[in-house]
Design a protein that fits this description.
The protein is of the alpha+beta class. It is 50% helix and 10% strand. It contains 27 helices and 18 strands. Helix 10 packs parallel to helix 12 and helix 21 packs antiparallel against helix 22.
Length: 681
């Protein structure tokens, strides 16, 4: 009996036809393990995970392997994107035991959910020193039958070790305060040492885009004038924009590069990467006016709206790395890579030669079987823009005839919050009201479908139906961040009010007395450990994202409660920023905003007045780190929702802007150029 047929997770549904008798994560699954006196196999992955697909085909579709699993185990399948709390707890155990992690994550548990054996992908036959999955199953079955006491002792030690990993002790041993300028300078020096001066980015292969770190560097440059910080951003963004990690035809970024030079990506495209990178490139354009940054920001925004937007107005989670290569075989990158012959077939001889030079397509190839991932090598000469436009359109049309990668169409609240912020700002910067509308539609969906009457969030939905899962800290924090950004762009104070509801939930349900933050609510399902991780992964940690949203909300409303909570949360950045700056980039970015104020900008004037619009645009384009912007007409209801707008009259009957810190304001100005100058650090 396969119990996955009725779930909403696209990843779990991919396994609904396996011969394995899968259970979703439920109390009943563990009760069944107790009744049968067998261990639990926990398999965690996500729909766009290439190796998850591989292991499913090799092992979970195999009748003999499935029979062994069904007889001796209770098999539980979890979508890590729906249940990041489960993923975090057991991934911590995997990494502690093996020194590495990844997906699929394979963990064997007692019926009390205590882990005792770990791994990730296991092949169907022994390979490169790895045992086969069948050997692992036999080994665990034998240990459970013959050495039960030993298994119990191992599980007990692991659970005790995880319980002892609380951050409270580490914070108590450090000075508990928000970072000071010297702390952020130390983080900059650490990043400089790890920077790849040849290819951009940090560390070696595999190389991941670092949007949170880049945001810190942009804000640090804005506050201090550091050219070194800006140069690292420019070099990294240019290298990624020219590399194969960026889709040179359709826009959008792949998950990561398998090499150090951004050449060959792991082809899955995730909403969170593209939302974060869209905003990074938009902010780089705001700082430098770079045409390349503008092109990538808009190309990434258009990709999200075109490829990931759902009928309900939200944004789907991901596109798969794999697709049919035209022969019935699923292959990674088949949708995106090109051979010279395929170029000739799509373009004809002369334009194929032009495209091969422009996009770096060679007979040898950069990918599998002589295919190349499209890049933008620096050819040193001018490009015929009209010819390039024609070639790109024809290649896109030819690619559209290929079998498309699958789409995970579940809506994740946190990642939609990131997309709302990115699309709202990009739309405002580049006069694209359609992008602002897309952000507004996604925000409407989160309120209608994900939010309940107690301002609690469901983490996911699909086809307009909320999932049976509670939001985690990053959902509340990133949705609040998205709503605050949307309010700054649209002038609609209701989004500030909604953000306040979510942040009050953070203070009540996710905060400890010492100022630390937990990833799950106090009334969430109890796991073997309550997860609490302040470090960035592919997205900002819930902890530092909450600090940023709390800081912005406090700046807009004057709430000392929210400001104080943000400063207490930033103590972890003081503790970790100098030692591991690459892994707490968003916390460092928030700390830059706190050091700068953040500045509070109130723009007041009649709606639709060009002078009001000019001041508003100057405010949005200000580079002061983390500056908050409120827009409203004098005497409007928005002043009730956004206290920053209260008692802000026009100046001699003209629209005006007030620049403040901690609600102490400079004299107002009616001049957009003067406002822009005040918002340059």
């Amino acid at each position: 009996m396969n119990r996955l047929a009725g779930v909403t997770s696209p990843y779990l549904l991919q396994h609904a036809d396996n011969p394995v008798d899968w259970w979703p994560w439920t109390p009943e699954a563990f009760e069944e393990a107790r009744r049968r006196n067998v261990p639990v196999l926990l398999s965690v992955g996500y729909s766009a995970c290439h190796w998850c697909h591989v292991m499913a085909h090799e092992s979970f579709d195999d009748p003999a392997t499935a029979a062994l699993l069904n007889e001796h185990f209770v098999a539980v399948k979890v979508d890590r994107e729906e249940r990041p709390d489960i993923d975090a707890v057991y991934m911590e155990a995997v990494q502690a035991a093996t020194g590495q992690g990844g997906w699929p994550m394979t963990v064997f548990l007692t019926p009390d959910a205590e882990p005792f054996y770990f791994g990730t992908y296991f092949p169907p036959a022994p390979r490169h020193g790895m045992p086969s999955f069948g050997q692992v199953l036999e080994g665990v079955r034998s240990a459970w039958a013959d050495r039960r006491d030993e298994v119990g002792e191992v599980a007990g030690r692991i659970v005790a070790d995880l319980a002892g990993r609380s951050l409270t002790g580490a914070l108590k041993s450090a000075e508990q305060r928000p970072p000071r300028p010297e702390d952020l300078h130390g983080a900059l020096m650490g990043l400089t040492r790890e920077f790849d001066a040849v290819h951009g980015g940090f560390a070696g292969a595999p190389k991941f885009p670092p949007p949170m770190v880049l945001e810190f560097l942009l804000r640090h440059h804005a506050r201090t004038g550091s050219q070194g910080a800006l140069e690292m951003v420019q070099a990294t963004c240019e290298a990624m924009a020219r590399g194969g990690i960026y889709d040179q035809l359709g826009g959008g970024f792949a998950r990561y590069s398998v090499d150090a030079s951004w050449t060959v990506p792991h082809f899955e495209k995730m909403l969170y990467d593209n939302a974060l990178l869209c905003r990074t490139y938009a902010h780089l354009w705001r700082t430098t006016g770079s045409e390349s940054a503008r092109r990538i920001a808009l190309g990434t925004a258009d990709f999200m709206v075109r490829e990931l937007r759902t009928e309900q107005g939200g944004f789907a989670s991901a596109l798969d790395a794999d697709s049919d290569d035209g022969t019935g075989r699923h292959a990674e990158g088949a949708y995106y890579a090109w051979t010279p012959g395929q170029l000739r077939e799509a373009l004809g001889e002369e334009d194929a030669q032009f495209a091969a030079v422009h996009f770096g397509v060679t007979e040898e190839g950069t990918f599998e079987e002589g295919a190349s991932v499209l890049q933008l090598p620096d050819t040193g000469g001018p490009v015929d823009a009209e010819r390039l436009r024609s070639v790109t359109e024809r290649l896109l049309a030819a690619r559209a005839e290929r079998p498309r990668p699958g789409r995970d169409d579940k809506i994740v609240a946190s990642w939609n919050g990131l997309a709302i912020a990115a699309l709202a700002e990009t739309g405002a910067y580049f006069d694209r009201p359609d992008l602002v509308q897309a952000a507004t539609d996604a925000a409407d969906l989160l309120v209608r479908v994900h939010m309940d009457w107690q301002a609690r969030l469901h983490r996911t939905s699909r086809d307009g139906v909320p999932g049976n899962n509670s939001g985690v800290l990053e959902d509340y924090a990133n949705v609040a961040e998205g709503f605050l950004t949307l309010a700054s762009v649209t002038g609609e104070g209701v989004w500030v009010e909604f953000a306040g509801f979510f942040l009050d939930t953070v203070l009540v349900q996710f905060s400890a007395a010492d100022g630390t933050l937990y990833d799950t609510a106090s009334d969430a399902e109890a796991l073997i450990r309550r997860p609490q991780d302040p470090t960035d992964n592919a997205t900002p940690s819930g902890w530092t994202a909450a600090a940023g949203a709390l800081l912005s909300y406090g700046a807009l409303t004057g709430s000392a409660l929210h400001r104080d909570a943000a400063e207490r949360a930033l103590a972890i950045v003081t503790a970790l920023g100098g030692r591991a700056p690459r892994f707490i980039g968003w916390g460092l970015a928030v700390a830059e905003a706190a050091l700068d104020g953040p500045r509070e900008v109130a723009v007041v004037g009649p709606q639709g007045d060009p002078a009001t619009a000019a001041l508003h645009r100057a405010a949005l384009l200000g580079t002061a780190p983390g500056a908050v912007v409120a827009l409203g007409a004098p005497g409007s209801d928005d002043a009730g929702e956004v206290p920053l707008l209260q008692d802000r009259p026009l100046v001699d009957g003209e629209p005006a802007a007030y620049v403040c810190r901690h609600f102490t304001c400079e004299r107002p100005t009616t001049d957009p150029e003067e406002l822009a100058a005040r918002l340059r650090s």
